[in-house]
Specification:
Radius of gyration: 59 Å
Keywords: Membrane, Transmembrane, Transmembrane helix
Number of domains: 6
InterPro entries: CTDL_fold, PEGA, SUMF_dom, SUMF_sf
Protein name: Formylglycine-generating enzyme required for sulfatase activity
CATH architecture of the largest domain: Alpha-Beta Complex
CATH superfamily of the largest domain: paralog of FGE (formylglycine-generating enzyme)
Helix content: 10-25%
Pfam family, one: FGE-sulfatase
Distance between the termini: 112 Å
Structural class: mainly beta
CATH class of the largest domain: Alpha Beta
Strand content: 35-45%
Shape: flat
Largest sheet: 4 strands, mixed
Strand order of the largest sheet: 3-4-1-7
């Protein structure tokens, strides 16, 4: 029921007075005999209606429903609601509310009327989408609306929500355009005009002669003379005509500009000459100018004679003169004549394979006639080191290539230098136990040997690894490169601190740290492992500097051919000559114990290498200062089991000392089997360095 219908119903319920008219048929009756009851009923009915209206008016509330829309709205309340102007009189409660307006989405909701006398409900209607058409857009143009793909033109009568929208149009050969449109909505038809600007330039092109095909970025666009629409940016223009060289230009074009390139002269095309040679790889020159190597195609300016030359090492030069017409194509094959020289290969062993420039040519001694250019020669034989040579034969001159292959072991030994020099100038000598008369020997001494000590237990060892050993003991000058503040001290006014005296007062830890320092300086893998400056172990595979093992020291000092020496000078005691710096008559007031009737001329330590070397070329091996060994001190077990290259325990409290010193002079101490131990520095203890060769 709408507002107008309800108003009519209410109007019909109002009570109005009417004029009295007596009925004809009541004549003769007493006045009021029938009028009395009817009047009472009418009055009672009117009273009831009035009471109902008054009751409704007293209980109803005034509600204003404000609708936000451009078009008049129709309001429908499902219940008794009396319209009074822009308001409705309606009792408290909940009612279904329906609102509609042309161009808007119908509204459906609940009207809740509270107990307040006057109330207001605001309703905003949602407009329907508008119908949008874009005009002035090339067909197929890409359309984006609010950043999303909206398809391609044409775009007609499409629904679009009311409000502002960003529209981007991109079309081939046009500049992109972006603009904001305001869509009214409410199912209203709107047309938006776009005017895309061209993205090309008008370019006028002509050539001499005319009729040349014009290519833009390799796409043919017509023949000269021509005005072409060419897209903006960097473009490659190419003019092509039969018998003429291609004319290529790079154009930088802006949208909307007009460019006239004028008449472009075409140059007659060069002749093309395809060159081959047998063998290939010949150098090609045209008029003395290098052009490349065969096979090759060269351009020759037309109508002119050109001097073509081909040359290849070991072959005679090929020369030819020729001329080509404009655009003419021709070919030429040159058979090069070899210049040969004889090479005599004297190869041993005779079964060795000869490979020439990567191709096998035979085995053993032979003579080959080869082209007169440099050849790569490779001589191979399983189990032997490969030899590589380069030879350049000469015509009329015989050459000799003489090669004797080494076995892999021979080559391995040849790679190892017999002596090396450290960064500090120390000399280390190479020792190969496997080529010596004895690589296996007994360390220690027999119980029957005079002066033997209990820690000199006899036990067999074998050396296999090649090693280098310093020929002298480390000097003060060398050690101070590692520890600048080092001071070897003095003994009763006799200096131990001169540059070429052996460094003493050096602990085992300091000696091992010196080895690692020197390894790092020379880029060698350190032999000893360190933690916070303390040596904690070693890496047996490392080739960095280290201290000699006790077995190495015993081998280089004692093994002489098939015999084992007792002393560094031999087996006689006492020595007849001044052979080592030991406790002698001149040092009696310092040491107290001396070798009688022996005077080496030095009270304390002497400069290194002051006496003759032993049979292995090592100095001071049995005197001057005792030396730190790599091995942790232990008394060997007399098991009879051969130990190979023994390195001993990773760490320990004490380390082995070997060799006599300027402070030792009795029979026991001068023997090469004498063993001592310690870990702190002493004034008669130094060291020499060693390293594995591989």
């Amino acid at each position: 029921m709408n507002r107008d219908d309800r108003a009519a119903d209410v109007s019909r319920e109002r009570i109005a007075a009417s004029d009295f008219q007596p009925l004809a048929e009541s004549a003769g009756r007493p006045a009021g005999s029938r009028r009395g009851p009817l009047r009472a009923v009418a009055i009672a009915g009117t009273a009831i209606v009035v009471l109902l209206v008054l009751g409704f008016l007293f209980t109803a509330r005034s509600v204003q429903i404000a609708v936000d829309s451009e078009a008049p709205a129709s309001i429908d309340i499902d219940g008794l609601a009396v319209p009074l102007g822009e308001r409705f009189m309606i009792r408290s409660g909940e009612y279904d509310l329906h609102i509609s307006a042309p161009g808007y989405v119908d509204y459906a909701g609940t009207l809740t009327v509270s107990g307040e006398a006057s109330q207001r409900l605001d309703v905003v209607l949602s407009p329907l989408p508008g119908r949008v058409t874009f005009a002035g857009i090339p067909e197929g143009a890409s359309i984006e609306i609010d950043g999303e793909d909206a398809g391609r033109a044409p775009y007609q009568g499409q629904l679009l929500d009311a409000g502002d929208h960003s529209v981007s149009i991109t079309a081939e050969r046009y500049l992109p355009e972006t603009r904001t449109i305001a869509v009214t909505g409410r199912d209203i038809q709107q047309t938006f005009e776009f005017s895309l600007q061209p993205a090309w330039a008008d370019v006028s092109i002509d050539s001499k002669p005319s009729g040349a095909t014009v290519f833009v970025d390799e796409e043919a666009v017509g023949s000269t003379p021509l005005t072409a629409e060419i897209l903006r940016g960097e473009r490659e223009l190419r003019l092509q005509a039969a018998g003429y060289a291609d004319l290529v230009r790079t154009l930088e074009l802006s949208a909307g500009e007009t460019t006239d390139l004028g008449i472009l002269p075409l140059i007659p095309a060069a002749g093309l000459l395809s060159l081959e040679s047998r063998p290939p790889g010949a150098n090609v020159t045209v008029g003395g100018e290098y052009r490349g190597q065969t096979p090759l195609t060269v351009e020759l300016s037309p109508g002119t004679e050109h001097r073509i030359q081909l040359s290849r090492p070991g072959y005679r030069r090929f020369s030819r003169s020729l001329a080509l017409e404009a655009g003419e194509k021709s070919s030429l094959t040159a058979n090069l004549e070899a210049q040969l020289g004889d090479v005599v290969f004297d190869i041993q062993p005779s079964e060795a394979q000869i490979t020439l420039n990567g191709e096998a040519v035979g085995r053993g001694p032979q003579t080959l006639s080869l082209p007169a250019y440099e050849h790569r020669v490779e001589i191979t034989l399983p189990g032997h080191k490969t030899e590589r040579r380069r030879v350049t034969p000469r015509e009329g001159l015989q050459q000799l290539v003489q090669v004797t292959l080494q076995t892999e072991e021979e080559a391995r030994m040849a790679r190892l230098q017999p002596e090396i020099t450290t960064a500090l100038g120390q000399t280390l000598k190479l020792f190969n136990p496997e080529t010596a008369a004895r690589s296996e020997f007994d360390m220690g001494s027999s119980r029957r040997d005079p002066g033997r000590r209990a820690n000199e237990v006899l036990h067999p060892v074998r050396l296999e690894r090649l090693f280098y050993l310093q020929t002298t003991e480390v000097t003060n000058a060398q050690f101070r490169q590692f520890q600048e503040s080092h001071n070897s001290g003095q003994e009763k006014g006799n200096s131990l601190n001169r540059e070429h005296q052996p460094a003493v007062q050096v602990s085992w830890q300091q000696a091992a740290a010196f080895c690692n320092w020197l390894s790092n300086r020379e880029g060698l893998p350190p032999f000893y492992t360190e933690r916070q400056g303390i040596i904690t172990g070693f890496n047996p595979a490392a080739t960095g500097y280290r201290l000699p093992t006790e077995a190495e020291w015993a081998w280089v000092s004692r093994v002489n051919g098939d015999s084992l020496q007792t002393f560094s000078w031999g087996d006689d005691f006492p020595p007849e000559d001044e052979v080592e710096n030991i406790a002698d008559a001149s040092s009696a007031y310092v040491t107290g114990r001396v070798l009688n009737n022996y005077n080496d001329g030095h009270v304390v330590s002497a400069p290194v290498a002051s006496f003759k070397p032993n049979h292995n070329g090592l100095y001071d091996i049995g005197g001057n200062v005792a030396e730190w060994m790599h091995n942790v001190y232990a008394i060997p077990a007399a098991t009879g089991i051969v130990q190979t290259d023994p390195l001993g325990a990773e760490s320990g409290d004490n380390y082995v000392l070997r060799g006599a010193s300027w402070a030792l002079g009795n029979l026991t101490e001068l023997r090469l089997t004498y063993r001592d131990y310690g870990q702190a520095g002493r004034d008669d203890v130094g060291f020499r360095i060693a390293r594995y060769a591989e």
